[in-house]
Specification:
By secondary structure, the protein is an all-alpha fold. 67% of the residues lie in helices and 2% in strands.
């Protein structure tokens, strides 16, 4: 755990680290919005059945007025319980007798109806085109819409563990560049998908990469940063993710066609891929994986960028070996993945971190993936949720540095649970209050995620950090995938999903107390460090 001493000799937190963090923040800004892309590209507009008398080209060419269209709609489409045109049924025969009724026809349910065999007519006032309108993912096919999001989340689940392991084997930089290229190609190709199946396969392919891109961004920041600046680095990255949310809301408001929106968000990633050639590999990872020569070379580059003169004299192989002697000895034996579960302290840390991440992301995605629950202006809500996470993460940074990792997580997760429970007690008519409570809930959940990521990265040893982070990310992605599925519980009670979200949050805050405090502590580099120092960290907290 002596790598921070080498960083001090290389300039500590200087120009090199600032440039690296800037690149990773821009990467997160550009990639993170793709997780929430289906909020807009898969938005479901108002729709009704296509009606021959109303929607064929000949009738439209004759210029029927608005009053005439209302009449034709009344005799062609039955009304639902809210006295609005049905979305999925139409009359089997035109009901001319309805023209002579002043009130509502009480026996309308007895009239013969049929499904929308000729297709649908969509309200294009909000979106000119979405994947829902392109492939008619409504009525009997509405369940196919969830398959798109599931495809992406399934890719995140699988990619987290595969590329996490590969990052530990072949390096953060190489896997980051490959995933960035794969992600860009997959999402651009998805814009031109001829069928829904092809689109889902391409989104699955993109989902394989996004966890690795975001995780390696975070790892490269953490592993190049002094312990006292690591919380700041995490806060900055999550703030840029928040800006990405606002950017998505703004672009979706301007660009109402899903092809163009996805293309505009994805094409600039090619420029980011080309710029990644100047990205530095983690010197900490190089040294721990028994590549000290390359690690020393990266440290000297960092020292040169930081303005340290004669870095070659102070950063020598002898200094490196004497400083990192224990870590280099441990690196001669590459730990297999099963070592994560072989030792008791490492196993306990990983299990607790995985469940906490799972429990935090269930309510987080439960809020941000159900924008329609708040109202119809999803562009405003997307931007609002992005805005609130900025001050939330700043407050989280202050509390992380003053109260410590454990107390901060407990505070924010408990408040998140309380605010979600408060939402369930507010009637739907009080939209402003519901929006306010939901926005604050998103702020607390975002702060909880940032605290969990910071604490988790400081508890996992360098030698197997990417693999362990991949496992923790998988647990979080399971929570993210579970969040929309929990909405099925509304068939029993409209409040039951939200109560479940709150229970997960409160349960997680109780388990955080079983993790050691890591504020201002050096990062562990080997599994032996975890076993040797776990008791010391608990006592220090």
């Amino acid at each position: 755990m002596a790598f921070h001493q080498l960083l001090e000799q290389a300039g500590g937190m200087g120009r090199f680290q600032s440039l690296q963090i800037a690149f990773h923040c821009i990467s997160i800004l550009m990639v993170y919005p793709h997780i929430l892309l289906e909020n807009f590209t898969a938005a479901v507009p108002d729709h009704r059945c296509w009606v021959h008398n109303l929607d064929n080209d000949t009738v439209s060419a004759n210029g029927t007025g608005i009053h005439r269209q209302d009449i034709l709609l009344r005799i062609s489409i039955p009304l639902d319980s809210n006295l609005r045109p049905e979305k999925c049924r139409r009359f089997l025969h035109t009901q001319w007798q309805l023209l002579h009724l002043n009130g509502t026809f009480s026996n309308m349910s007895e009239l013969d109806t049929e499904p929308c065999v000729d297709g649908w007519v969509y309200d294009r006032s909000s979106f000119s085109s979405t994947i829902v309108t392109k492939w008619d993912l409504v009525c009997e096919s509405q369940s196919l819409k969830s398959m798109v999001q599931f495809s992406f989340m399934a890719g995140m689940l699988l990619g987290g563990i595969i590329y996490g392991h590969l990052s530990d084997r072949f390096g953060r930089r190489l896997i980051f560049k490959w995933c960035l290229l794969q992600f860009t190609i997959a999402d651009i190709c998805a814009c031109f998908s001829p069928t829904l199946l092809v689109y889902c396969l391409l989104r699955f392919w993109a989902g394989l990469c996004i966890s690795s891109i975001l995780t390696n961004n975070v790892l490269l920041i953490i592993e190049w940063t002094m312990p006292r600046f690591q919380a700041l680095g995490m806060t900055v990255t999550i703030c840029f993710a928040s800006v990405g949310q606002m950017l998505l809301g703004g672009l979706a408001f301007v660009i109402r066609d899903w092809h163009l929106l996805q293309l505009v968000l994805t094409a600039p990633l090619f420029v980011l891929f080309l710029a990644s050639r100047w990205l530095a590999e983690s010197a900490r990872w190089l040294i721990i994986t028994n590549k000290p020569e390359r690690g020393l070379k990266e440290l000297r580059k960092a020292a040169h960028k930081n303005g340290i003169k004669n870095a070659g004299d102070s950063l020598t192989m002898e200094v490196l070996r004497s400083t990192m002697q224990e870590e280099l000895e441990a690196a001669k034996i590459q730990p297999p993945v099963c070592d994560l579960f072989r030792t008791p302290n490492m196993r306990r840390r990983l299990c607790l971190l995985s469940f906490v991440r799972f429990a935090i992301l269930v309510p987080f995605y439960g809020l941000i993936l159900h924008l329609q629950y708040l109202g119809s202006n999803i562009f405003l809500f997307q931007a609002l949720f992005g805005i609130v996470t900025l001050p939330a993460n700043y407050v989280a940074l202050l509390t992380l540095n003053h109260l410590g990792r454990r107390v901060t997580q407990v505070l924010f997760m408990f408040l998140l649970g309380i605010f979600i429970l408060a939402i369930t007690s507010v009637p739907p008519e009080m939209q402003t209050l519901r929006v306010a409570l939901s926005t604050l809930g998103v702020g607390f959940s975002s702060a909880s995620v940032m605290c969990s990521c910071t604490h988790g990265n400081e508890l996992i040893p360098t030698v197997i950090r990417a693999t362990a982070t991949g496992i923790i990310t998988i647990a979080g992605n399971i929570g993210a995938a579970l969040a929309p599925l929990l909405m099925i519980l509304t068939v029993y009670s409209p409040h039951l999903p939200w109560i479940t979200y709150a229970v997960f949050s409160i349960l997680a805050c109780l388990l955080v107390f079983f993790l050691p405090e890591t504020r201002n502590q050096p990062l562990p580099d080997s599994i032996q460090d975890v076993e040797k120092d776990d008791l010391r960290l608990i006592q220090a907290s």
